[in-house]
Amino acid sequence: MNMGATALARPGLEPLVTGISDIVSRRLGPRRTAYTVADLLRDRLPGLDILTPLEREGSPDGYVSRPLHAQEDFSIVSVVWRPGQETVIHDHVAWCTFGIISGIEHETLYRDMGDHLLEIGRADNRPGEVSGFAPPGDIHKVLNTSGEVGVSIHVYGADVSRLGSSVRRVYDLPVR
């Protein structure tokens, strides 16, 4: 599903779609694509006005993930987190790049050891910060540790409107 014309009316979205389309068309490989898209997102990270005031409120029921643009080879998604909201431990179907607009996304990284997960790192991702990664090795959990609603933009190397989610697998293993 191409969400083209309607999605492009959001401030700051059109230059992202154009730039990401160009990068993806180069077929650089997943990891290099994620890092190249991260460089682009760092230069073109939109402001809060990419979402309506109502969309920026989030939901008391959990974080809200909203596709802003989707096509066969990539999607741009907004994620809105109220304070204390978090994901489960998961990995992704494709490469991912994300940029923080507001809030603090505390990320915990894990390695799958077969019968358990091993925590291998933590990072506090703050407004203006951008990062990217590609499977394998992308097992993580994210938590909004700030006292404000967090908003981030995620770019995935897949059509999440067709797949329904960027998550490949949820991990229910003990953490050691």
Automatic annotation (TrEMBL):
Binding, Fe cation: H90, H92, H140
Location of cross-link 3'-(S-cysteinyl)-tyrosine (Cys-Tyr): C96-Y156
Molecular function (Gene Ontology), one example: ferrous iron binding
Record CDD domains: cupin_CDO
Superkingdom to which the source organism belongs: Bacteria
Transmembrane segments: none
Keywords, alphabetical: Dioxygenase, Iron, Metal-binding, Oxidoreductase, Thioether bond
InterPro entries recorded: CDO_1, RmlC-like_jellyroll, RmlC_Cupin_sf
SUPFAM superfamilies: RmlC-like cupins (SSF51182)
Annotated family: Belongs to the cysteine dioxygenase family.
Protein known as: Putative metal-dependent enzyme (Double-stranded beta helix superfamily)
Lineage of the species this protein comes from: Bacteria, Bacillati, Actinomycetota, Actinomycetes, Streptosporangiales
